[in-house]
């Protein structure tokens, strides 16, 4: 009897431990305390604007959306370029994060029969997001991956834009064309589209959910426009989808993660500082903000529930080169310095990649090459 009681008690104890461990994820706080938010702001702020680090040859081209990773002791930046027809995806490289050399295109316009023939705005996936880490890009299933938004209409973000997935078995830092899945993986016309993404889906960024806090190994953060009554006039909000294999994706939840009801909240990029996940994103055309476009952040313990920073913008227009918009960030920490890359747009419509830092590194000598009004029709 005593032996039976002991075995029963041990079995119940094991079940209790298993249940406790399995429910740990559910017990993570859904709100990040104000003192943690303030500490995060002090850690990530970049008050010193270094200036432009990458600009197009003329104002006929618009550079946008930097994504940074490290490969073989070189820094690699993917970015997108709009030339009047649509977006293509390019690569640049650097030894010091300040001086960048353009390498060329990795996704470009294609045959008119393709669903993404005129738009391929790409963002490399599965980059190590540990704050101050190595920022390496990780393969999965023998491939490197990149999400992108694509479409077959010409013009600035025109027509039906959807999320596609590209991949390569070659070096992701080397110049070559990435292969693409035949069909989009997320569309605003999907039968299960949510009220907040039933018009247009824009930038997307994929990370590995290392602890499977969502129950899936991969998370895609994306911003989309939609509305339950009038989709084309809805706000742009940040939402998420999940995947087990990087190919098949499903929307997660029934509400957006960041929603300001007016204007734009978009272009989420994730970093992890100790046990806090930090989402860097931009806001634009918010009724309660004087600046037209600016960079913000939010924090989370579970990658799903996000507490927004209520204090000063991380980046906002202050200089001639970013006098119209200062937005769309990619923030990393390397060798004790925080580097905040962002999209800078001046009042003439010149658009390039700028940098702000946590320490004064002097000033860039790069400047926009065209002082004329935009030639894009």
Identify the CATH homologous superfamily.
Glycosyl hydrolase domain, family 43
**Count of helices?**
2
User: What percent of residues adopt helix (DSSP H or I)?
Assistant: under 10%
User: Oligomer, anyone?
Assistant: single chain
Notable features of this structure?
377 residues, four-stranded antiparallel sheet, disordered C terminus, mainly beta, globular, 2 helices, Tachylectin-2, Chain A
Describe the structure concisely for a colleague:
The chain is mostly beta strands.
Please explain how this structure is put together:
The chain is mainly beta and 377 residues long. It has a single domain, classed as Tachylectin-2, Chain A. Helix content is 8%, strand content 39%. It is built from two helices and 20 strands. Strands 1-20-19-18 form a four-stranded antiparallel beta sheet, with no helix packed on it. Strands 2-3-4-5 form a four-stranded antiparallel beta sheet, with no helix packed on it. Strand 14 and strand 15 (276-284) form a beta hairpin. The longest helix has 21 residues, at 2-22. It is globular and about 50 Å long. It starts with a helix and ends in a 20-residue tail after the last strand.
